[in-house]
Amino acid sequence: MRTEWNCASVDAGSGTPIRRISVLGHHLSRCASATLRSHSCGHARTIRYGDSVQVQCIGTVLNSGKNANLFKDDVCSFIVGQTQTSILLPAIGDQIIGLSYNESIQFTLDTGDPSHPQAVHDAAQVVTVPVGSVDVHVGMTVKIQYQGQSRMGTVVGVSECGKQATVDMNDPLAGEALELTVTILQLGSGVKPDQRITLDSIPEPLHVPDRMLRPSELQTFDGVTNVAVYISVCGFVYDVSTGSSFYGPHGAYGFMAGHDATVALAKFQLNPQLLDRPWTGLDEGELGTLLEYVRTFQSKYPVVGRLRQ
């Protein structure tokens, strides 16, 4: 087994800013474990299917009290009732029906719940690998070669001699009960739940400099070869240097730096093998996820050019 250690280190207490989530067809229903906390008054407009909303979603690991970091900055935007196949949004959407601006709802995801993002911790995904001459520590996020594939994992133990490390390739939320608190930040309307998302739904940046970057040139903007950190999404290159804590060499998503990350973002997976791949075969749910990422990138990071295909 060949071990490849990267320099992306994440504090074990904070985890990653965005968590890969696999949503099953079953959505949460309102139950005894869900509680409503109202902060509004009067006859405020309430959420219904088809509304465009922005919510704060704080997920807490019940066993440790740590933030589950389900979404970047604990905030996400989506259309209630829109088909989503790869994230938790349909379940959240079902929970917030009937809420108004600034209202909150709290509910629990037990490990046996079909909507839990990672209900089972697979012991087979915990492996011992040689360290070599690299200094590693518990809590460090690393990339290893396992069964012929590049895999991300967290160091959970280091041998006394320092020559071997135990790496857990499970999602950090695997087998953990979660408590979610969802607060309505913005509320809009006018989008039909059955409206289809296609590649044409992905907006282009308003201003794109007249610059073309070859893939080999893009790879030099990884925060190491060059201080700047560039990532390509849908063929547009963004300078994400201000988000280097996420996308730089010490970030959980540092493996995306210097690459086209369109497919990895759309599939919501920390998988280096999804980099630099064509994005023409994405399904509607993946395109919906990609649309939210594109909106986030366009609102936070400048475009420096296009990627030469």
Describe the structure.
The strands form three sheets. This protein has a five-stranded antiparallel β-sheet with strand order 1-4-9-2-3, covered by helices on one side. A four-stranded antiparallel β-sheet has the order 5-8-7-6, with no helix packed on it. The chain has helices at residues 89-96, 215-218, 244-247, 262-266, 284-300, and strands at residues 35-37, 52-61, 75-79, 104-109, 126-130, 141-146, 149-158, 164-168, 178-187, 212-213, 230-233, 236-239, 303-307. The two termini are 34 Å apart. Mean pLDDT is 78; it is low at 1-33, 37-43 and 189-194. The relative contact order is 0.19. With 309 residues, the chain is α+β, with helices and mostly antiparallel strands.
Structure described in brief:
This protein is an alpha+beta fold. It contains five helices and 13 strands. It has helices at about 90-95, 215-220, 245, 260-265, 285-300; strands spanning about 35, 50-60, 75-80, 105-110, 125-130, 140-145, 150-160, 165-170, 180-185, 210-215, 230-235, 235-240, 305.
Show the helix and strand layout.
Layout: E1 35-37, E2 52-61, E3 75-79, H1 89-96, E4 104-109, E5 126-130, E6 141-146, E7 149-158, E8 164-168, E9 178-187, E10 212-213, H2 215-218, E11 230-233, E12 236-239, H3 244-247, H4 262-266, H5 284-300, E13 303-307
Parallel strand pairs: 10-13
Antiparallel strand pairs: 1-4, 2-3, 2-9, 4-9, 5-8, 6-7, 7-8, 11-12, 12-13
Order of helices and strands: EEEHEEEEEEEHEEHHHE
Beta-strand percentage range: 15-25%
Mean pLDDT: 78
Helix content: 10-25%
Number of strands: 13
**What is the overall silhouette?**
globular
| Number of helices, where a helix is a run of at least 4 consecutive DSSP H or I residues | 5
Low-confidence stretches: 1-33, 37-43, 189-194
